[in-house]
Amino acid sequence: MDFTAQPKPATALCGVVSADGKIAYPPGVKEITDKITTDEMIKRLKMVVKTFMDMDQDSEDEKQQYLPLALHLASEFFLRNPNKDVRLLVACCLADIFRIYAPEAPYTSHDKLKDIFLFITRQLKGLEDTKSPQFNRYFYLLENLAWVKSYNICFELEDCNEIFIQLFRTLFSVINNSHNKKVQMHMLDLMSSIIMEGDGVTQELLDSILINLIPAHKNLNKQSFDLAKVLLKRTVQTIEACIANFFNQVLVLGRSSVSDLSEHVFDLIQELFAIDPHLLLSVMPQLEFKLKSNDGEERLAVVRLLAKLFGSKDSDLATQNRPLWQCFLGRFNDIHVPVRLESVKFASHCLMNHPDLAKDLTEYLKVRSHDPEEAIRHDVIVTIITAAKRDLALVNDQLLGFVRERTLDKRWRVRKEAMMGLAQLYKKYCLHGEAGKEAAEKVSWIKDKLLHIYYQNSIDDKLLVEKIFAQYLVPHNLETEERMKCLYYLYASLDPNAVKALNEMWKCQNMLRSHVRELLDLHKQPTSEANCSAMFGKLMTIAKNLPDPGKAQDFVKKFNQVLGDDEKLRSQLELLISPTCSCKQADVCVREIARKLANPKQPTNPFLEMVKFLLERIAPVHIDSEAISALVKLMNKSIEGTADDEEEGVSPDTAIRSGLELLKVLSFTHPTSFHSAETYESLLQCLRMEDDKVAEAAIQIFRNTGHKIETDLPQIRSTLIPILHQKAKRGTPHQAKQAVHCIHAIFTNKEVQLAQIFEPLSRSLNADVPEQLITPLVSLGHISMLAPDQFASPMKSVVANFIVKDLLMNDRSTGEKNGKLWSPDEEVSPEVLAKVQAIKLLVRWLLGMKNNQSKSANSTLRLLSAMLVSEGDLTEQKRISCW
């Protein structure tokens, strides 16, 4: 039932009065005038309200009877009554009167109608308090007005807009979270009928809706925002043109005076788009126009807005409006730096919410990754890494390649962001395997790339690589077994250059530990000018191994002063760099030293930060005796075939060989950690393996770490000696060299041991079987270099009678010229290889005799010189005799 839908009656109802000229009241209701008390008036009005509530449109007699009462209730006496209960009851009566007399109201004066509807609107403010005893009457008033669409009669009034604006503002101001859905529904019905059945929505009325979408108002009253949201959705077909006109006035024509909300247009567009993109069908082309504005700040504001529209999770704007999308992408190349920066920041959300747009973004991010502005290159990395951390599938290999390139950026901030970002991805997808093997394979190159950066000259890069290694590649906070498993398989899967970089890293850290150890030794000596000079030189060397060496010098000097004054601090530092310090002890020491140097009153302490850098570099956070034992056990499992080699993507042979290479490197930097029977038993097992390189590495580990085997582990000694003898006599040339050096390094009776090798080898030399000469010549050469005095006489005989006379001066085979400047060993005859080793033997013999005044040395030098002068043609037969 409403005023617009019902047919008009044949006669007007206005002006009808009772037969005696008096107002007719319902039975039992006395006259209502200003002569009675307010309480009595309320009592009588309630009975009137009840009468009108029970009436319907078909009660023609009653309608005629109570018409004068209807006119009376619209008098100024009631409309301006000071009592709110009176006003509420009158408003309820008037609402029912509009219902009963619809479609023609009993009031003909436009001014009177305006007064009545403004009066009713004011009463609707009572809806705000749901706990009020009168709330049900206010709800009845709202329900009645909405059901009958009473306000639609105002369309006939010239200034109806004033009424509608007041109504909308009132409803939006009173809605709150204590209202149920029925209240909201009736409000929506009331407002939507005005919008949809009117001739249009004025700007002021539109403002009364849109103001509730502005963030400040939205946060103040979420229920008014929700009401406006649903209202706009319901009336989208009608209100879209009005919205388009508003934005056209402000955005295109620049008429900001048309609305008080002009300064909030971008906020409004964002909210309207989230409510229903159809509300902005005609507005989007206007944004494309704004993207091409000459004002950089204006373009920036539009880019920020469109970034939210394109990037929101459920948005399909990029596919629905390709011209706008392409125009927006063009802002990645904007001349205005903040615009480019905002575009790059948007890309992260877009990649995460719309992976299908990654292809469009890739080319633009590529250009921006080379942007002249450091901040933009930095944010390109942040954008890609953020998306990749959410889901690696969101970024393609090309995008990851941009981050890879930036690890070599000219700016430290950009390099650092790229390196740290890649490290985080490696830890997430390779170490923790959060997205399966395919994802791990996609970023498996990261470990190599990060370690390659250790080759850079910058100390900052080197320090960051060390930090990344300790926190991301092989996290130091893992339990020992897990940490060593991580290191074991990492080392086995690195490329050769990465392996060299990692070895260099350990070497540099070990060198720095040595410098600090020497500094502490200087503190133990009496003060002198020479001591101070040596200490200063050592401090300068240490400073070069820290960030910003210029500033580091001052901090290192300060630290040195603290060390001189604090004996307990020195003892903590000595424990930290001690060869026997465990990883757990190192962690405690670092924390203890940092605690002592901390200053609670100084939140940012550059001195403490610099000391922490030093401690992190020298602290053995990965390797100790327990760690070496765990590594050896892992290698044993690989040898036995019970390890997880295949699951880790490494073949057992590769795991064993690289595992021994790893142990070999660690034997240089952490030799004390190897000293255990269990470790040496495993290494003995490796010596018996058929793989030549494995055995060679094992011998070298014994050589580097076995200084106490003879005294502490006699059983290992008795097993090791025959194996070393066998390798020196019949092993590969490399094994023979290491075996001789191992015997010389770790045994006290080395003269006896070397003699037992020298004598049988020197007697068995036979130039007619050159392939069996190479290992004996290598062993003899190294023995003569290590023990020149012991074997001076027999070596002189071997050199004169066999090496020169029998081997170098005689050719037993004829070689063929291949035109190459150099050939690999496998393409050269055994005789040539034997002669090469013979010359090396001469050089090693000379090195051993460098401190002796020997005629043999002089004659050997003349021989080598003659070889160079004659280009190898010692017999003057116009061929290279010695080759």
- The amount of helix comes to 55-70%
**Structure class:** mainly alpha
Mean pLDDT: 86
3D shape: elongated
Count of all domains: 5
Number of H- or I-type helical stretches: 45
Q: Report, as a whole number of angstroms, the end-to-end distance.
A: 118 Å
* Percent of sequence in beta strands: under 5%
Low-confidence sequence ranges: 4-20
**Rg, alpha carbons:** 47 Å
**Total beta strand runs:** 0
The major β-sheet equals: none
Family: Belongs to the PDS5 family.
Subcellular location: Nucleus
Protein name: Sister chromatid cohesion protein PDS5 homolog A isoform X2
Keywords: Cell cycle, Cell division, Mitosis, Nucleus, Repeat
Write structural notes for this entry.
There is one protein chain. The chain has about 900 residues and is mainly α. It is elongated and about 155 Å long. It contains 45 helices and no strands. It has five domains: about 200 residues, Leucine-rich Repeat Variant (Alpha Horseshoe); about 70 residues, no CATH class; about 200 residues, no CATH class; about 55 residues, no CATH class; about 120 residues. Helix content is about 65%, strand content about 0%. About 0% of the residues have low confidence. The chain starts with about 35 loop residues before the first helix and ends in a 14-residue tail after the last helix. This is Sister chromatid cohesion protein PDS5 homolog A isoform X2. InterPro entries: ARM-like, ARM-type_fold, Pds5. Keywords: Cell cycle, Cell division, Mitosis, Nucleus, Repeat.
